Amino acid sequence: xxxxxxxxxxxxxxxxxxxxxxxxxxxxxxxxxxxxxxxxxxxxxxxxxxxxxxxxxxxxxxxxxxxxxxxxxxxxxxxxxxxxxxxxxxxxxxxxxxxxxxxxxxxxxxxxxxxxxxxxxxxxxxxxxxxxxxxxxxxxxxxxxxxxxxxxxxxxxxxxxxxxxxxxxxxxxxxxxxxxxxxxxxxxxxxxxxxxxxxxxxxxxxxxxxxxxxxxxxxxxxxxxxxxxxxxxxxxxxxxxxxxxxxxxxxxxxxxxxxxxxxxxxxxxxxxxxxxxxxxxxxxxxxxxxxxxxxxxxxxxxxxxxxxxxxxxxxxxxxxxxxxxxxxxxxxxxxxxxxxxxxxxxxxxxxxxxxxxxxxxxxxxxxxxxxxxxxxxxxxxxxxxxxxxxxxxxxxxxxxxxxxxxxxxxxxxxxxxxxxxxxxxxxxxxxxxxxxxxxxxxxxxxxxxxxxxxxxxxxxxxxxxxxxxxxxxxxxxxxxxxxxxxxxxxxxxxxxxxxxxxxxxxxxxxxxxxxxxxxxxxxxxxxxxxxxxxxxxxxxxxxxxxxxxxxxxxxxxxxxxxxxxxxxxxxxxxxxxxxxxxxxxxxxxxxxxxxxxxxxxxxxxxxxxxxxxxxxxxxxxxxxxxxxxxxxx
Length: 633
Hints:
By secondary structure, the chain is an alpha/beta fold.
């Protein structure tokens, strides 16, 4: 079963657990088994049909072998052509019926497995949708995709291979043993004597092959690393700049030769192993022919016939492969449980940011937002916010500035509850945001972040994400305010233009303006701008700044700003440093204090002056330099 991707365990060949699998071997208890069974319970009727079909197929599958004995004893030795034809037709009918039942069983099995996958994927997606923002910032994206797709899809193998194969092999072994001992107990004992000769060499040779496969895989990993590093865009440039082409080629040849030698060695051992196993599987029938022949020739067993010997040989060949598969049952079972354990690990992740039952829905339009002694840390070792206290009056625009890493974005993330404070509170209209109905709270807030994200669809689809029932007039009005309408209508497909994955077909400024238009379309009561104009050129920035000023009128707004022009327009400026509000006041008030803000301002001011001087002298890189401003804000 597939468990590839980040965070998954590399599996050894069938019959052996890797050291990593042994280390992460799941704990088997009734709770885990009941939980797995809960996903199968809705399909218990279908499972019953599958098991019934397996049993019928196993029983009917015995008939051709048993009929072979009748053909020899009654038809061939009795010179009865009519009986021969009847028996052959009966054997063919039994064989056909067994195969048809097997096909029906596989259809039902596939239906069950796909329905269980459907149920689990729906449950997992719903669960992940409501996980807190911190989950997605700490978990690897590849790990999430692996659990969502590869691991859950692997459940199909658990049901169709591990579970069904176990039942199928068990039914085949039991029915075959019953038939063998019914025909002849001595010959049955002779036939099963060969089973240890099949199992022990298989495991010993398999362990040796596994060691070789492990070494080959390690060298393959090394070869892939060489390819990835030297043939990537950055890697190939580095090779060229340092003229290391010949040296890298020699290194590649050396590793490639080691991989080739190990692969040949492993393949050679595999061929000899298959030859050996082929010989062992023929020893059983030969021993039965020998034992049966002796009994017939010496008259040791008068009830024994040539037909019984022939039927026993046919049955014993039917026995070996299922026995070998059942010997690997423990490994298959462990891997299956490990797969479910990885899936359940995500299901068991608690969401601390749940919407409370009967959450409140107070009016938030032009209401005060109060941060009261807020404390927060991402890790226990370092406290990011120690005591943040300030109030944003309803309908006013406040700017938050501070050194890089001071927690500016974290502060505003408390408002839509992307994170919850660990101490203190954030209130809107006197009500703690943790008491709000979560969906209602976030519907009242519009956020424009520095890193704009667009889905792989059309411009219109991305805009409608804010308001599904928006009319074309509303969409165009929002885009005109965001100064992006003219650009859109110039495209061949207009508002139906595809933006590409993550909006890669658009420039940073175009994506940013679409993002702003999306928030304008939402018409939120509270506006949060995290450097919303960072990706815009000077002309677009001026147009957008004017649009945002209109948007922020009579609307409670908090702006995290890096640019001096934005900061100076704020009603008040909140300076966050060393985990608390270091300063708070108007632009001029903070300058007069000669504190942290004064230092930050003068650093910024010098850069502005330099850029203005460059613009006057016609520096062609002025616009680029204007975009690259200090992160001190």
